[in-house]
Amino acid sequence: MMFRLLSFLLVLTLACAPVLAADKPNVIIIYADDIGYGDVSCYGATSVATPNIDRLAEEGLRFRDGHCASATCTPSRYAMLTGEYAWRQTGTGIAKGDQAMIIEPGRTTLATVFKNAGYKTGVVGKWHLGLGDGTMDWNGKIGPGPQSIGFDYCFLMPATGDRVPCVYVENDKVLNLDSADPITVSFGKPLDIPTGKANPEMLKMHPSHGHDQTIVNGVSRIGFMTGGKSALWRDEDMADEFVNKALAFIDGHKAEPFFLYFSTHDIHVPRMPHERFVGKTGMGPRGDTIVEFDWCVGEIMKALDEQGLTENTLVILSSDNGPVIDDGYHDDSVEKLGDHKAAGPLRGGKYSLFEGGTRVPFIVHWKGRVQPGVSDALMCQVDFPATMAALIGEGFNVPTAPDSENHLNALLGESDEGRGILIEHGKRVALRHGDWKLIPRGAGPAINANTNTELGNDSNHQLYNLANDLGETTNVANQHPDKVTELMEVLKAEIARADAAPGLLSGEAKAKNKGKK
């Protein structure tokens, strides 16, 4: 009798274990940099093969209408982590290399959602959201940084590969820095160093515009930097460095729930793939770095398979904005592009208000939970905080994330209903409402809560019906004036809502939030 009881309890325990584990699945966001809708083979690319990304799509859910929150990197990352459109806040444009921390410590972020639920949280790769308080000393303790907004561990490129400082930051210190060779960084006053502009003979990759200041690893960058020679990165090793740190994080936390934001840099300029990837495509460095990024994806998935974590790990792959071919360097990407269409059937790319600016690869993989297929639900990365909170059973009523909506059912393929409306962001804003796309005539820079933006008159607006004109080739604003008026009112109401959104935390809210950490 006792044996039967013990056997029953053992079977019951084993049966319940997967359910309990699924309550707190691991979550990995694999974030590409500058990869367009048509840059990977599961979205139609034929000039480059991406088998590891294709595996995610074949075994998971591929979204055909998934978006980042902006057509450039810093505001996309800001929105994804905070749940707030970047255009609601000033100072969220493309960050300089010495930019102060953009996300205010103390506010709710995607990382704090997981951390408050008992997850170990890590970010590896490109950061580009600023570090420090505006008086950065790269030779001492660096803060505030990711650890002040919910990440337990970070291994970062501070900004981008084309900006100084060209060093890695691990947690709160520059990695491998020699105190006898201190770092000085300037984005204003020139420093006494050779520059790409004055010494083109020193370069192995020449700028097409800008990018002609400090020379590191034979490439001139934006900004001036001296010192830190022992800490300088070698661009060709960057993918390996990031992958190794990501794998170490996974291995170190395999026995507990973890969240990893794996932010790659491969496709962003300067495009310098590791030697083993050079020549893997006929498209030059840009094509070769797409192959390198695919390898990164494969290494992450191989680690999950080997650790037995695949069935309890939700993997989301997407990009920070649409594609760009020439983004500051002569690297043969234009000359060797051939028939490849980086944005696929879409118009525009990085920086653009057309669909190619924010509609990007968006794939969800969770073996045994997310069924293979394709979804046309309208999705956006700004919804990650609210959606992930729903996934792990955390409530989400956060005034500092006014734009984040819970679309867990759509993310898991259990519903075809995604967002009702989406504000797309480039230098201005556009509105998606179902199949309709409105690009208003706007004045001035990106809209934010402190800008009184005049949207202009109807005669200058652009209206597209994406159901039969995905490439946004025919402006039908004149044929549908009532629809223009309707969508203008929707857009104006959404912009006006910024005045009511508190955005950054009040002092009282900061103190309350701090007490939860």
Keywords:
517 residues, disordered N terminus, ten-stranded mixed sheet, alpha/beta, 25% helix
Strand content: 15-25%
Number of strands: 22
Strand order of the largest sheet: 7-6-5-4-13-1-14-16-2-17
**CA(first)-CA(last) distance:** 49 Å
Radius of gyration: 23 Å
Output the number of helix runs.
11
Low-confidence stretches: 1-21, 443-458, 500-517
Walk me through what this model shows.
- With 517 residues, the chain is of the alpha/beta class.
- The chain has helices spanning 2-23, 51-59, 73-82, 110-115, 238-252, 284-307, 355-358, 384-391, 408-411, 481-500, 507-514, and strands at residues 26-32, 61-63, 66-67, 120-126, 153-157, 169-170, 173-174, 184-186, 206-207, 215-216, 219-220, 224-226, 258-263, 313-319, 329-330, 363-365, 373-375, 379-380, 421-425, 429-433, 436-439, 462-465.
- A ten-stranded mixed β-sheet has the order 7-6-5-4-13-1-14-16-2-17. Strands 19-20-21-22 form a four-stranded antiparallel β-sheet.
- A hairpin with a 3-residue loop joins strand 19 and strand 20 (429-433).
- Helix 5 (238-252) runs parallel beside helix 6.
- The longest helix has 24 residues, at 284-307.
- It is globular, with a radius of gyration of 23 Å.
- The termini are far apart.
- Mean pLDDT is 90; it is low at 1-21, 443-458 and 500-517.
